[in-house]
């Protein structure tokens, strides 16, 4: 059976850091990441395709984050939105694996 | 992944991330992009229960994550890179406690960080630091280095000496405020001041002892004679304290600890410390428990 692909939308204001984060995520065979530098790009991507996780990187102001969270949750109540700390650091894989395990636990609890 | 593949994935079906594809230089990440290690998880480790009391976690040295990349040999108290243990994600805002050995002349190339308070404490040898704010510096045993990564910073850390290992602690705290202006600082401490004393090395206040960071955290270091005892009073009883034994044997509260053991305690306003060996050394990290 083919492993399930995980689609990840990464939003960050720092271009080089965003590029690093995307490259690291896309090194994983089963993770597919797309990036957006602006809220408009992010929302357009989210409207266009299904994502499993939204990763918020640095530089996003609180009010923008609130709008993004609200927009994504309204369109897909099951979407997982997590803050990425560290800028493509050694925490990135951990954050995604942890989010996926929490989602699985949640789904099992609701089943 | 090759760069062309990255670009293909980044652009796939959208055209939204065109700008990134035009960036000429690829910034390496020196942890995630090291050679692939086989193990992702923690089942290869003696996976003891961390919580030993309602308000206490114990992380014995040999239960830490371990990654040996050759030039870099790292022990992770909390989940990091290829080591993932959901029981050990963080202690309050303390997210990373890496105990690193770096071969002579080797190190971490230029790589980015954002939104993290990064503290380095050299234990042996010298590290050469360079960053995107034009700081160039060497830190050595007795120094402490802090970086508020904030909106984004690039840095490199290399073992300054070709013929000697460098050993240092890499400590990351979640920031109190996100997206602050990046900042670098380092300080040479008088290590004599920690003999039979808890020497403050870090605080949230610029005018206090030690370096300061963007978090309500206080760090202290002590080096004790055998049987010396002390009490640490928390600055804020809502915080917790994570003790990491650098050398020797130390009892904290009723828990006998050995070299590189870690003990986290919360819901208390003070902790008792007693040295069970000569020249025992400890690092205390008082941190907020909520992120």
TrEMBL record, chain A:
This is Response regulator receiver domain-containing protein. It comes from Dyadobacter koreensis.
UniProtKB/TrEMBL annotation, chain B:
Residues 64-173 form the Pirin N-terminal domain. Gene3D superfamilies: Jelly Rolls. CDD domains: cupin_Yhhw_N. SUPFAM superfamilies: RmlC-like cupins. Residues 201-287 form the Quercetin 2,3-dioxygenase C-terminal cupin domain. InterPro entries: Pirin (IPR012093), Pirin_N_dom (IPR003829), Quercetinase_C (IPR041602), RmlC-like_jellyroll (IPR014710), RmlC_Cupin_sf (IPR011051). Belongs to the pirin family. This is Pirin N-terminal domain-containing protein. It comes from Dyadobacter koreensis. The lineage of its organism: Bacteria, Pseudomonadati, Bacteroidota, Cytophagia, Cytophagales.
């Amino acid at each position: 059976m083919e492993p399930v692909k995980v689609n990840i939308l990464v939003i960050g204001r720092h271009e080089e850091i965003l590029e690093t984060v995307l490259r690291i995520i896309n090194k994983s065979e089963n993770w597919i990441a797309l990036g957006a530098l602006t809220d408009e790009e992010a929302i357009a991507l989210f409207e266009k395709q299904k994502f499993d996780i939204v990763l918020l990187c640095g530089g996003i102001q609180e009010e923008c984050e609130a709008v993004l969270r609200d927009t994504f949750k309204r369109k897909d109540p099951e979407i997982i939105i997590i803050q990425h700390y560290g800028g493509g650091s050694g925490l990135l894989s951990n954050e995604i694996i942890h989010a996926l395990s929490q989602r699985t636990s949640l789904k099992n609890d609701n089943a | 992944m090759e760069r062309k593949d990255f670009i293909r994935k980044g652009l796939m079906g959208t055209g939204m991330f065109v700008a990134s594809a035009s960036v000429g230089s690829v910034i390496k990440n020196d942890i995630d992009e090291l050679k692939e290690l086989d193990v992702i998880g923690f089942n290869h480790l003696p996976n003891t229960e961390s919580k030993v009391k309602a308000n206490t976690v114990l992380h014995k040295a040999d239960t830490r994550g371990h990654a040996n990349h050759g030039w870099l040999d790292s022990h992770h108290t909390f989940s990091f890179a290829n080591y993932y243990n959901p029981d050990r994600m963080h202690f309050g805002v303390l997210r990373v406690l890496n105990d690193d050995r770096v071969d002579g002349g080797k190190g971490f190339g230029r790589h980015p960080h954002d939104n993290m308070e990064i503290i380095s404490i050299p234990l042996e040898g010298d590290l050469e630091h360079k960053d995107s704010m034009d700081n160039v510096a060497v830190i050595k045993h007795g120094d402490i280095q802090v970086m508020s990564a904030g909106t984004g910073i690039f840095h490199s850390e290399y073992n300054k000496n070709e013929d000697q290992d460098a050993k240092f602690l890499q400590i990351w705290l979640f920031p109190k405020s996100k997206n602050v202006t990046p900042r670098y600082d380092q300080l040479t401490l008088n290590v004599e001041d920690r003999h039979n004393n808890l020497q403050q090395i870090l605080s949230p206040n610029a005018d206090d002892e030690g370096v300061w960071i963007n978090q309500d955290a206080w760090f202290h270091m002590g080096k004790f004679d055998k049987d010396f005892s002390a009490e640490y009073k928390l600055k804020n009883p809502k915080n917790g304290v994570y003790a990491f034994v650098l050398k020797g044997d130390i009892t904290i509260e009723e828990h006998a600890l050995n070299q590189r053991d870690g003990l986290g305690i919360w819901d208390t306003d003070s902790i008792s410390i007693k040295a069970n060996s000569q020249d025992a050394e400890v690092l205390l990290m008082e941190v907020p428990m909520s992120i």
